[in-house]
Design a protein that fits this description.
The protein is largely without helices or strands and 85 residues long. It has a single domain, classed as 3 Solenoid (Pectate Lyase C-like), CATH 2.160.20.80. It contains no helices and no strands.
Length: 85
């Protein structure tokens, strides 16, 4: 599990990254390319994902509470914003 709490990853190329269970609480991911990234069970609480590309990203069980998502693309409307218990 990666601890990237509050990391500045604006505009980062994270295509296909394995971020399963990563702690990305408060991370700055604005404009990041997360195409095909594995974010299962990641903690993205309060993360800035504005203008990020999440096409084909796996967000199953990811915590997206209070995440900023305006302008983000590729988010499945059925994605839950609270991890499954």
């Amino acid at each position: 599990m990666s601890d990237l709490f509050g990391a500045d990853l604006r505009g980062a190329d994270l295509r296909g990254a394995d971020l399963r269970g990563a702690v990305l609480t408060g991370a700055r991911l604005r404009g990041a390319d997360l195409t095909g990234a594995d974010l299962r069970d990641a903690n993205l609480y309060g993360a800035d994902l504005r203008d990020a590309d999440l096409t084909d990203a796996n967000l199953k069980g990811a915590d997206l509470r209070d995440a900023r998502l305006s302008g983000a693309v590729g988010i499945n409307p059925g994605v839950r914003t609270v991890p499954s218990l």
